[in-house]
């Protein structure tokens, strides 16, 4: 400051200087308050408006399959369902799949956790031992959990590092390891595939109503194709909540076989993927049902020393506390032999397509000299892999249930052709339920609009 300036400042009255300083201080305080208010406003606005935008910027968009069969990119394989595996050490997801046996390559598991997806982790591929010579086989793919991640979605890839947007993910099911006391069902029936425009309405209805009387709460149907009348019936039972229909368009992905042996029947996969549907059904309902019955739609697993399934299984389980698998003997009731009285040849059922099981009371004696197939009741938590007539891998014991305790009523074409009625055994077990059964079948057919009195 120059001497002149200093002198001029000394000549300014002190009162005026103090007033100017107070004014400056007030202006500075107002400016700081305004600045702070504006900054606070910006923070509030950002807090309210930007999280969604920021999330969308960070979010990785990927496709989640809503189909029961999903192709794996750059392979000849398909995934069906992904399930958290609570029974093995470590955190693992098991993917029920269908693999082309001659085209297996290293695969990697991609997980999506919140807003990010991981690089691939090496997958363990376990092809099931039963494939009956067909090119495609039911396969388990085991995926180890990534570190610091609780994933909800998983996909398979042939590469370690890929863009999630280029793959289709499966939702991971069975995330919660529920206890049996929390299960919604005690007994669930898993029915392997309906195909060939199946329209056996009367037998289907009688079978479902028999299972209701026996204590079953849910029947799961994997449906490739069914006839027009059966479609109406399925819709009716699904609306009621007793039947769960899983659409199974296997014929859109390969040439499925109508038979069980490749050398005789050809095609890509055994019985429209029957083995895959049975395994998927077990895992799908592992923490929903105490027991699962694995059988075909024309078979009924019937107790003979108990009125219903719950007391029968309670008795069997108490006798065999470590058992997880119960084999039930198959008894064939030829549809060519009829009850002579024809008492259940009801006029109102004659226009309903299908077999009337109540008219077939004669059964073949099983030929124990040859292989005799069983169907299965399982505690699903004790099963790892199953075939049609036996469980391939389990964590507990297997019990063959004596036929006097329980066996299958299987109305179909004769197995041992040439047997006359005199060579067959009379078995009227279904008639023990006749009062409720006939009435309930009538009601079910009426609900579906398939019965006119």
From TrEMBL:
<dbReference type="InterPro" id="IPR008166">
    <property type="entry name" value="Glyco_transf_92"/>
</dbReference>
<keyword id="KW-0472">Membrane</keyword>
<keyword id="KW-0808">Transferase</keyword>
<dbReference type="GO" id="GO:0016020">
    <property type="term" value="C:membrane"/>
</dbReference>
<keyword id="KW-1133">Transmembrane helix</keyword>
<protein>
    <recommendedName>
        <fullName>Glycosyltransferase family 92 protein</fullName>
        <ecNumber>2.4.1.-</ecNumber>
    </recommendedName>
</protein>
<dbReference type="GO" id="GO:0005737">
    <property type="term" value="C:cytoplasm"/>
</dbReference>
<comment type="similarity">
    <text>Belongs to the glycosyltransferase 92 family.</text>
</comment>
<keyword id="KW-0328">Glycosyltransferase</keyword>
<feature type="transmembrane region" description="Helical">
    <location>
        <begin position="21"/>
        <end position="46"/>
    </location>
</feature>
<dbReference type="Pfam" id="PF01697">
    <property type="entry name" value="Glyco_transf_92"/>
</dbReference>
<dbReference type="GO" id="GO:0016757">
    <property type="term" value="F:glycosyltransferase activity"/>
</dbReference>
<keyword id="KW-0812">Transmembrane</keyword>
